[in-house]
Specification:
139 residues, mainly beta, 5-stranded antiparallel β-sheet, 12 strands, binds dTDP-4-keto-6-deoxyglucose
């Protein structure tokens, strides 16, 4: 699942436990989650034509997994924008700190599960792109 993603982002292949009844994917360190999970939330029922995100986190690490349907994730490190389609439940996208991210083109059935390494804190969000661009690290 290697792609040319910004530093701090990567696609992680989750271990699928499957048998004749169907599939099951656990989320824990032993099966590919790179941090201790402090919070999980779901994004679903996104209305047609709506885009979400448009922020970066100062410190938060997250894993976004599209468990149904599909959407396009845009990742921006302040120098380059990368787009990828999330459309499979065994591919977890790690989004590191200081990555501007946007979600577009949700299918009507899209469900995104997100695991995060810290509780919700509005103070961790940068919701203004000019502020993000000012703070984004430059090599
Ligand atoms: C992210 C992308 C991928 C809470 O009360 N608790 C929570 O844990 C979260 C995540 C959100 N909220 C509240 C804050 C807002 O009033 O739920 C409302 C919607 O949140 P927001 O507009 O930030 O949602 P998205 O879809 O734009 O972004 C979300 C996450 O907030 C964000 O951390 O990285 O998904």
């Amino acid at each position: 699942m290697e792609r040319n993603l910004p530093e701090g982002c990567r696609l992680i292949s989750l271990s699928v436990r499957g048998d004749e009844r169907g599939s099951l994917i656990p989320l824990e360190r032993a099966t590919g989650v790179p941090f201790d999970i402090a919070r999980v939330y779901f994004i679903y029922g996104t209305q047609p034509g709506v885009s979400r995100g448009f922020h970066a986190h100062r410190q938060l690490r997250q894993l976004a997994i599209c468990i149904a349907g599909s959407c396009t994730m845009v990742l921006d490190d302040g120098r380059k924008r990368t787009e990828l389609r999330l459309d499979r439940p065994d591919a977890a996208l790690e989004i590191g700190p200081m990555i501007w991210h946007e979600m577009h083109d949700f299918s009507p059935d899209c469900v995104i599960v997100v695991a995060a390494d810290a509780p919700y804190s509005e103070g961790d969000y940068i919701r203004d792109y000019a502020e993000f661009a000012e703070l984004a690290p430059i090599d």
